[in-house]
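Q: Second attempt. The first request was missing the SMILES, so the protein and magnesium ion are both included now.
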Amino acid sequence: MSWDEILQCTGIIARYLVPTLKIFGFTLIFSIPLGMVVALLKMCKFKPVSWLVNVYILIMRGTPLMLQIITIYYAIPMMKVSDSAFLQNLFAGVDIKSESYQFNALIVAFALNYAAYFAEIFRGGIESIPKGQYEAAAALGMTKTQTFFRIILPQVVKRIVPASSNEVITLVKDTSLASAIAYAEIFRKAKEQMITYSNLTPLFIAGLFYFVMNAVLTVLFTAIEKKLDYYK
Amino acid sequence: MAILEVRNLSKSFDGFEVLKDISFDVEKGEVVAIIGPSGSGKSTLLRCINQLEKAGGGTVKVCGMDLIADYKNGKPVYSPAETLRAIRLKIGLVFQNFNLFPHMSVMKNITEAPVCVLKKSRQEAEKTAAALLEKMGLSQKANAYPCELSGGQQQRVSIARALALNPELLFFDEPTSALDPELTGEILKVIKELAKEKMTMVIVTHEMAFARDVADHVIFMDGGVIVEEGTPEQVFGETKNERTKQFLQRYNNDYK
Ligand SMILES: Nc1ncnc2c1ncn2[C@@H]1O[C@H](COP(=O)(O)OP(=O)(O)OP(=O)(O)O)[C@@H](O)[C@H]1O
Ligand SMILES: [Mg+2]
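A: Got both inputs this time. The predicted holo structure:
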């Protein structure tokens, strides 16, 4: 490829940075709070709840994200052509060809999947806080909510930063799985360009984009870890 | 006036009776030392009164308020939540391993509960905290984090933290057991100082010489029961009880 072509190709791929970042951002926005809820439900003393949550986590972590994306994406089209009139009507208004449907399906799949991973990280973090912290807070008259938000959570955050940063970095790379349902983002565009030019360079360009994003994130997480290093 | 009244308190863990029929009073201004071998139920006793464990039976009254007033269908009847909360604030608890909040400065450790539980202004809470730190000889350490302090300093912060809520009653569960011998003295000094100010205290300790010295009343527990109680002279000096004698003999080097 000539320099001109490389430049042009980079421009095209760069334009699809936005969809990639959208998947990344929305997944984090939904999966982190959801993961927190899932973690708390898993620690719930009412067995059926924690058991159910456990099944959810096992499925999400035990099957490929690509499979989950495709399953969720095709779930509604399948229901639209099912025998049940109820299901047909329920989803009659959904335009499965639209980009927004594609995107929503992606975010549902990513958020459900990442919530399971975050939940396990959060649970590990919460359970690693010594019992004495809860007891000290209780002896000082703090309520359960105060104890959780003022005493436990800040300590959990520090403990889960390293594991969470791994997940976030994996997520950057996982956004490329959106190409499985033909959603236009960096990876899909790069692949198209590769075929157009019969040349691997577009893939290297896409790789460079992922690499730079993760380099930035690594610097960011290192800074956060350093910031939280004021106590042991 | 008895500030703490415990009657027939019992507690089991999975059918294993850890406390059996415990009854005792603590008067205002009194220092009570609880001694006894490991596993005799001393911590469990403090924890039941402090609501960190649920009692199995008996009644407990703190500062005239019922913690457990009654016993029905084989279960103790606890007072409503507000009463339990009020009682909690009457009792300060100092742990063996301090349990300071590692992510908060010394100042924040002490002011957190006054601000978020008693709803005091931060300014007021910090003033109280500064005075307490001064008393503990830790004025220089207000902005330090617990990990930067020695064990003895951490324990003094945790005492200040408990005192910041202005409790009527202070519980210590082996406050020096996690400390090097040379740091034990500084904590014992603080407790003695508090005793002089007529702070009501219940102290679980293995420091026999200290218990003898500071306590007005000594309770010797073994196997979940109070085997013997009385003045330090009665328990340490002239006990007729074989179990007490046996126990004290092991600490012979400890008290002169
Ligand atoms: N949470 C628990 N679950 C089950 N058993 C417990 C629990 N806490 C305490 N025990 C048991 O209750 C008994 C009394 O324990 P406790 O901690 O009150 O003794 P202690 O007198 O404080 O001993 P030490 O001097 O070693 O601190 C022990 O046999 C202990 O194993
Ligand atoms: Mg104990």
